[in-house]
Amino acid sequence: MRRLPATLTLAAGLLVLPALAAARSAGDPIRLVWDEGDVAGTSTIYGPDGGEPIGFIEYRQTRHGDRLSCVRIAHFRDGSSDEDSADARVEGTLEALAGRTIIRDADGVPAVDLTIDVAGGHIAASWGRGARRRTLDERAALPKGTYWGPLIFIVLKNFDANAEDGRLVFRTVAPTPRPRALDLKLARGPRTVLERTGARLATLRFELEPTIHWTVDPLLRLVLPRATLWMLPGEPPALARFTGPRNYAREEIVIQ
Question: How far, in Å, CA of 133 to CA of 228, rounded?
């Protein structure tokens, strides 16, 4: 009987091992709860003070079989724009295939042009102007759970089915302006009431920020931007407000 505790400890450890092995990593595709289909619409962009509109976003999403294509273009009053496109496979999980990010200045010239080929494991990009223009063309190990642009909102809609301890980490490729592969963390915050003209909206707040390791993350927050998103509960959930950086230039915007 003296060996019973040790035996029970070993048995408990064996039971835990499969659960640990099944834990989701940052590059694993997220499980889809909500069906994605054809969608189109626009949203208004405001400055950080929430006053006059400074632009608008047009969004288009189409689905053919298990393939999803989406384009999101932010048009700004000064003539600049941010464009993100993505193709993905949506068959139970969200598996990124390829996409592109183009950031144009007020003259319409691409300040950043980034192509992401997840299926082919390849990144190509150019950034800067004139003699300071730089290019990159390289192989990259990009997991199927790599998300950017409009794919991030799909991740957010399916947060509850994939989060662990109120957090969900995924891989992204972001222009800084040089393209960098890094992990982003979505963390669920408190319930919050948003005040709108003539309405009070009950929402859930989420924080989105880069993450590497708990010992480094506080330093990351000092140099890399973070964003806050408010979601309306529903079937499916819907985005009520976004506040955060426009792009690597860290210009603060509000979308609602």
Answer: 32
